[in-house]
Amino acid sequence: MTVALDPDPSRTVVQRRSLQVLFASSSGGRAATSVMFFVAVLAVKEILGNGRWAGLTTVALTLGTAVGSSTLSSLMDRRGRRPGLTLGYALAAIGAVVAAAGVEYQLLTPLLLGMGMAGLGQGSTNLSRYAAADLAAEDQRSRAISMIVFASTLGAVSGPLFAGGAGNLSERLGLLNLSGPFLAGAVFFTIAGVIVAVFLRPDPLVVAGGLGSTTGDRRLGFVESMGIVVASPGARLGLITLCGSSAVMVMVMAMTPLHMDANHHGTGTIGWIISAHTAGMFAFAPLAGWFSDRRGRIPAILLGAAILILSTAITAVATEAPNSLMFPGLYLLGLGWSFGMVAGSALVTESVTKAQRVSAQGAVDVAGAVASGAGALSSGVIFTSLGFGALSILAMLISGTLLVVTLFHVGKQRSQRVVVVP
What we know:
Elements: H1 9-48, H2 56-79, H3 81-104, H4 108-133, H5 141-158, H6 162-172, H7 179-199, H8 204-208, H9 222-231, H10 233-262, H11 267-282, H12 285-295, H13 297-316, H14 322-351, H15 357-386, H16 388-417
């Protein structure tokens, strides 16, 4: 009997340890973002007196994520994953305190600035999935990515549930109720940063040999990195998938708190619905990873797009009964995003060379964050002008477009494999 030995046991040990550390830090980082997210929407409404521009905090968060994805990726390419992730979480913790001050003094500018800084923490959490893939075998890449996405379940589901308790504690300390969740976010970001700084050793990117390997000593800029992504059919589809899935998810999710608030639901009920949504985003990520590795990236993307279409169709008719229909609608919205995120990330990673991966990953995450920001900014205007149903229908059309584009990609790839014999 022949026993198959691991060609490099040391890499396996480092990969296992890295996954454990990234699992814990991603949970803390996602808890911080989720406990702040829906409360920030309500805070803008309270400051401005209406919900027309409630999506501004989501825009600030996603733009901060875009900046973080670019700058932190650049730092990681030079220094490794640990310094980049740690810096992102540290600045996000400071940002959460700044946002709390904005809420406390009813000032929009520090609230938006703080949410933008919190986006750096979200950028660190997002980039953690690529760190998980640094040492993963090719046939296990999606599962490695999905484990970090799944890790966010603990934080994403539990985060909103801390909002009520954090608000009550804040009032006991003489602060406003809405300030509490932001201070809780600062604590969670701090925990995530400490975990990475202390325990992510050795650095997985350094062990993988991907440090500073892009083009000699020259770091690729965003435009050049995006050119590499667009030039590859697989990476280009991964980019479209991540942007489309993120935009649809954020458009609907950002206005859900306002929609439910208008239907006289309290923050507790809203928190449970958002928790259901985030459970859909993260809890079944291992299933998405398994499906993507077993059946292929394209089938996973198609399934994700189909789930997004179904979810937005449900939320489109949830205008009269948000508490009942919003639950499955928001859950499926998260699940569809999960399939697109896992499969799209793996497709980008394996469609470019090893030397180009860090730059390409950063550029794709920047584009995804910009798409999310655009979706958030437009969602408030559409919601206040046309209603939640119209917003959901638009999101459904975008999801349908993603499905069509993916099918077109499949058809084009098949046609290129046809050999014409004279």
